[in-house]
Request: fold
Amino acid sequence: MSTDHDNTNDGERLDDETLDERQLLEARAYAVFREGDLTQAVALFGELIGHAPDIAYLHYMRGLAHKYLRDWPASLQDNLQSQQLQGEFDEASAWNAGIAATAMGNWAEARHQWTQCGITLPEGEGPIEGNFGVACARLAPWSDAEVVYMSRIDPVRARIDNVPLPESGFRFGDIVLHDGASTGRRAYGEREVPVFNAMQRLRQSDMATFTVFVQCTAPDDIDALQALTLPGIGMIEDWTASVRRLCRRCSYGTPHQHGDEAEAAEDSGWACERDLGIAAQGRAAVETLMAMWVAAAPGRVLETIEQREHPLSEPEPGQVWWLGEEEEGA
Reply:
């Protein structure tokens, strides 16, 4: 009887089993990522990288999970490794590396990534301070996702131009880091501008938010208030006119009518009771401003000035907050 053993078939079978196991592991890694379990996704993609360290997209995917965890050093390292393993320029890895480097204040790396993406930057070696246009930010996209206008000072940093609601924790003039992919569009004058997810605050403004309740008889009264300028006052916003509680679809930049909203808006007249948001360096400046406004014309009433600080919210495990509107509805 022959005692020879065919090792070739066993080796092929072992390779097939190993491949199947890795395919199952990869499928699981993508599944938990889609479910928002980012910590588990990082671990599983890391396990896959241990088996196949030269596969670029595995590093990219782990970097993407680190990005949404806002673990910037790890995200930068993964995206740089992804670039190194690819034989040609990869825009997605470059953008995510640029976002991570910007969040870390690594301006040399950020400038390198934006330059290879073909973005023209202001000259210099430090922070990028340019004019990249107006856009909208979805503040705390994992929460109520208040949408505000912002002035972009580099590819992923912007200054908030509205007075956000106090509950958001953000302020007028805050510098925020936003994602690179637009989640929708929103009207800005005669044109539309992109809407981006704000990922975190990089620098807090010195302008606190004051909620002011007033009564006045006509829109001209609010116009007169907004025309006043005083030291310590950053912005005056008529929240009664500008703030709407938006549904999820609206928050992505596509506001639409709900039921009889259109008819109600046409039939309603001027509401004398107004809720204002005032960005100011201190309460004394707001009190002086409002006293000037009340004294300048009859029918103007200051009811109260409130200030309530709220912390910034954090995403909860399992939230898939980064999708665009079309992706989320798929």
Q: What stands out?
A: The longest strand covers residues 175-188. The two ends are 63 Å apart (CA to CA).
